[in-house]
Design goal:
With about 425 residues, the protein is mostly helical. It has one domain. About 70% of the residues lie in helices and about 0% in strands. The protein is built from 19 helices and no strands. Helix 2 runs antiparallel to helix 3, helix 5 packs antiparallel against helix 7 and helix 15 packs parallel to helix 19. The radius of gyration is 22 Å and the shape is globular. About 40% of the residues are buried. It comes from Pontibacter qinzhouensis. Keywords: Membrane, Transmembrane, Transmembrane helix. This is Oligosaccharide repeat unit polymerase.
């Protein structure tokens, strides 16, 4: 059942790429990928003594995870109001953005400057500049639908810098997510045969596996100074070439286990199932209320508010202790169980999906008046599509990203005499 559900979310995502900006399909797939496929591989390939094996039985894990993820998907697709994507919206967006090159360049400029500032601003402003630094991608999307002759050059610049930063920092999350968002917009405007999309998905899985197989070795070399300064990209490339030339090493038990460790968010959820309520009582909505409060109230009104990041909740509900400098989250699925148990957790996941559904439908509805707004969906849902964070991180990102988007739409006409 778990494998079938994961496969259904994959097929649904590929088909949804032709129908709308596939945010819902991507969320459903990512949850099934990390919380169903990952645990399937864990139960099949990892021995019980492995530190990253799931400490409960398959029946215990999947009897909670499958209904809860089905509930999330129902919430995502539950018919709400007349806020739906249509190709009329896309046509209006293309027409509206035809002469928006100047706006696109300003957004890219803000994003590039903020990419530097986010490293030096005080902690309280870091998230604000994190959102602003991603405006460079929104600017590229604007150019994608404009008549500008700079679109190819700036696309290569922005995504080239993203790739270089991913390699030099050994952090590939943003590169993967923004590449997927680009793919969404591309397939929506260019009708791609299903077989080509399936082949691209298979190639993407292989690339993820390939990168994962070298990431540990690369990070050790990077962090311990084994790579000469300025040669990070060349060293990373050499590792990739080495793996491709030696398939035995690429598909070794070590590489396969490392890939399972990375995608298996169910390991953490399984520890939550094992620990709660035997050693830690149900939170009964405490973390959800704290997450909403932390997202809505500014720090000066709530100086003791929870800081998104998940380390406190991870130890409390999983019973595991993180080493210094390590960050992990119990995931919304784990948090659902930690608060409400199996049945209540599934109901929470339905409500969780409904929140995303409502925001998405609202944006489609407002896009009738602000045609470019649909291109801001990747920024608004950037942290939402990942299944490995916690409720506070997700809800905080949604609230702050929607607020920043609203501020920018109001500020550009007033201060720059330009409409977004």
């Amino acid at each position: 059942m778990a494998l079938s559900l994961w496969f259904i979310t994959l097929i649904n995502l590929l088909e949804e790429l032709d129908r709308e900006i596939a945010i819902r399909g991507l969320i459903a797939f990512m949850y099934a990928f990390q919380l169903l496929l990952g645990p399937i591989l864990s139960f099949k390939y990892l021995p019980n003594w492995d530190y990253y094996s799931i400490p409960v039985t398959e029946d215990e894990y999947f009897s909670f995870a499958i209904p809860a993820i089905i509930a999330l998907i129902i919430g995502l697709y539950f018919p709400l109001f007349k806020g739906k994507f249509s190709f009329g919206l896309l046509s209006a967006t293309k027409t509206y953005l035809a002469d928006k090159e100047k706006v696109a360049l300003i957004l890219i400029g803000i994003g590039l400057v903020s990419s530097y500032l986010v490293k030096i601003v005080p902690g309280g402003l870091a998230f604000f500049f994190f959102l602003l630094k991603n405006l460079k991608f929104i600017g590229v999307f604007y150019l994608f639908y404009s008549k500008s002759n700079k679109k190819t050059t700036l696309f290569i610049l922005v995504f080239g810098l993203l790739a270089i930063n991913a390699i030099t920092s050994s952090m590939f999350h943003d590169l993967i997510l923004w590449t997927m968002f680009v793919g969404m917009l591309f397939t929506l405007t260019k009708k791609i045969p299903f077989f080509i999309k399936l082949s691209a998905a298979a190639a993407g899985f292989f690339v993820l596996f390939l990168v994962q197989s070298v990431k540990g070795e690369y990070r050790n070399a990077l962090w311990f100074g084994s790579i000469p300064s300025g040669q990070e990209t060349e060293y990373f490339q050499s590792l990739i070439e080495e793996r491709i030339s030696d398939m035995t090493t690429l598909f070794s038990d070590k590489s396969i286990n490392g890939f399972i460790y990375r995608i298996n968010q169910g390991w953490i959820v399984g520890n939550v199932l094992y620990n709660v309520p035997t050693w830690e009582p149900y939170a009964n909505g405490e973390t959800i209320v704290d997450g909403i409060s932390a997202s809505i109230l500014p720090r000066f009104l709530n100086p003791d508010k929870y800081v998104a990041g998940g380390k406190e909740y991870f130890t409390r509900f999983s019973g595991l202790v993180l080493s210094s400098g390590t960050s992990m989250n119990i995931s919304p699925l784990g948090e659902a169980y930690a608060n409400f148990g199996s049945s209540g957790g599934a109901l929470f996941m339905f409500a969780f999906g409904m929140i995303f559904n409502f925001i998405l439908a609202s944006i489609y509805k407002f896009s009738k008046f602000y045609p470019s707004l649909i291109l801001w969906l990747p920024l608004i849902f950037l942290q939402v599509v990942k299944a490995e964070t916690d409720f506070t991180t997700v809800f905080n990102h949604l609230v702050k990203a929607c607020f920043i988007t609203w501020i920018l739409y109001k500020s550009f006409p007033r201060f720059l005499k330009l409409k977004l």
